[in-house]
Amino acid sequence: MNNKKIKDYLLNFLTIFLSFLIALLIINFILIKITPQKFFPRSLAGSLPNILLTFYPDTYSNKGLNNYIAIIGDSYAQGGGDAYLSGTEDYSIAHHLHKSDKKNYLLFARAGYGSISAISNLIKIHKLSHLSYFIKDLNKPDEIVFFFYEGNDLRDNIVEYKSFIKNNEEIDNYTFRRINENIKLNNSEKINSFFPILPFLGEFVKDFENLFKQIFSEGGLKKIKFLITSRIKKLFGHTIVLNDIPVDNLRWINSIKNHKNIKDVRPIQGAAIHLSKEEILLGIEIFFSSVNYIRSWSESSKIYIVYLPSPISSYVWNEPIVYYYQSNLDEIKTISNKENDQNSIFIRNQIYKFSKKNNLSF
Known about the structure:
Layout: H1 3-34, H2 42-45, H3 50-55, E1 69-72, H4 75-78, H5 82-85, H6 93-101, E2 105-107, H7 115-129, E3 143-149, H8 153-164, H9 171-182, H10 187-194, H11 197-218, H12 221-235, H13 277-298, E4 303-308, H14 311-314, E5 321-322, E6 334-335, H15 337-357
Parallel strand pairs: 1-2, 1-3, 3-4
Antiparallel strand pairs: 5-6
Helix pairs in contact: 7-9, 7-13, 8-13, 9-13, 11-12, 13-15
């Protein structure tokens, strides 16, 4: 191969590479611009990378985003319920607050977050916003609304604690250490802040991998057809739960007292009823340490703790109540209304006392 051919190959390669890079930048820019809720299809919103999820809901004004209220917590705070799945415009508490007072609300809450992850995500996205040229730099929030859900927040705190605690480590030291570890930005997160198109496309690749695994493991044309058509329906806005676990109908036995229409309800969550008293107190202490950390970091005097009761605490159920037992899905666990209420009142009182002592709104 002569020098001219080598130069031509290199020139062609550079041309293709630069064209691809320019196309990627254009698509990347378009993705960022169209991700607000009014432009972006709900069926694809769950595939958005973490930083763009915060800017997806129409709960703020771009012009006045120097001042905003941060909402942190798990899927309940994020608004991951029936309203979201059915395509309702005002699907979260942030939407209703924004509609009411016209203030800016940014959602840093994500599904499955415990106390440490909830506040770590706010700090991390604040840091990422200063790295990307495409996303507006965020100030620290003027106010913070911390949603505490009694159903699984304490459980999430305990699971993480058992996995990461060091010998003879105090709770405050453990909590602060875990938060500081979580908010460190790795190279992948830094790159994704510039090119959110990459993790967005990565979600589709992951789903196709799962699809092909299911096709080869399931067999049968009927099942394969269902797997493919369900994904096509999801793209067109239908509410489809992918990779869902099969459910034993015999376990759908809960019903609300004096309400004939609410029956055959699946196992539900209660007030940390699967934890011991010692674990409840430990989980609450981790929550308190997390609040203290975010209060110090934000330097905000306006922090509100909103207590969300579980489904069992919200109604009077016919007994025995079959509750959601995370560690063993095959094991049936039951509880009474009274036992659950005792736990709920105990947890609420602990948080109320902490809030009053630290001049927090509860």
